[in-house]
């Protein structure tokens, strides 16, 4: 199997451990184990649970406790509609491996996480890309989607909230996508890994799994829940699909770690406190970013409605890899090149790490841009 290099992950692997100011980070500022235990108010009890946890294989689909907690994040799902995976990246890969066959027709929005078009292409599928446009607020043109979906379309892949733009498809838009898919009997895979940090309300928008009988939601503990180190995600969808996914899963991952499963349970049992922290960080930091962009005439963007990232368009006449490399070398600030998403003259910023890193990073970027303008 030949597959295109994963541009975003290769960039992150090269630089995220050595940069001084990581504004490429996409997770809400990570919790330590101690912070998680403190937020639970049950430190002693949880440590006792850890003491008693046998380090054997856990339940293959995930513990009943965890699957019930994940199901509770949705309006109409039960534990049998949940399969625990190694992160959302593992969840997405398993869905594509289960559904996509050579010559199948797939429609995927772009920009998005590269899994959703490169994996189907590697399986020999015919992938039609639906470009998200800045002029449309980075939201999909659903009339165009309707035209692209044909009688042989097997799967529609979307990402909501969107990475890298932070655009958010509301419930009405998702319902329209479901109606388009239903017309031809297609599945809809919605990568919802950023779900829970909308800028308004309780932070949650509707899930495709609750709106469509062939809707599949993937998510994880990484982004809104600040626990990427657990490497724990999930697939939510019809039980008949999960049975097929489990067949593929048996060949790759068996169970997730028992300790990871337990700590994910602790987090979801205290999700209100964790999400309140995440909302405070994402809403405070986006306001800081927005004020900074408003004060400049060489950077523009569509303000995100959700998520932890934004796509910034810059006016400097250099490519985004050169822009990000020079920025990193001269200031220690790390962005992600927009070319990694096939959108040149843009950069992705992650704005959900600690506030002081964001403020310092933006000040240094401003100085960098001022110097570029003088070159």
Detailed description of the structure:
The protein has 375 residues and is an alpha/beta fold. The chain is 42% helix and 15% strand. It is built from 14 helices and 13 strands. The protein has helices spanning 7-15, 33-40, 43-51, 64-71, 87-99, 115-122, 142-148, 171-184, 208-211, 239-249, 258-269, 271-294, 320-331, 355-374, and strands at residues 21-22, 82-85, 105-110, 126-131, 153-159, 187-191, 215-220, 233-236, 299-301, 309-314, 333-334, 336-337, 346-350. Strands 2-8-7-6-5-3-4 form a seven-stranded mixed beta sheet, sandwiched between helices. Strand 5 (153-159), helix 8 (171-184) and strand 6 (187-191) form a beta-alpha-beta unit. Helix 5 packs parallel to helix 6 and helix 5 (87-99) packs across helix 10 (239-249). The longest helix has 24 residues, at 271-294. The radius of gyration is 20 Å and the shape is globular. The model has no long low-confidence stretch (mean pLDDT 97).
Instruction: Give me the count of strands.
Output: 13
Beta fraction of the residues? 15-25%
| Terminal residue distance | 45 Å
Shape assignment = globular
Read across the widest sheet, the strand sequence of neighbours is 2-8-7-6-5-3-4
Average pLDDT figure: 97
Describe the biggest sheet?
7 strands, mixed
Helix content: 40-55%
Output the number of helix runs: 14
Global Rg: 20 Å
Element order, helices and strands?
Answer: HEHHHEHEHEHEHEHEEHHHEEHEEEH
Q: Which secondary-structure class do the elements indicate?
A: alpha/beta
In the predicted model, the low-confidence regions spanning at least 5 consecutive residues are none
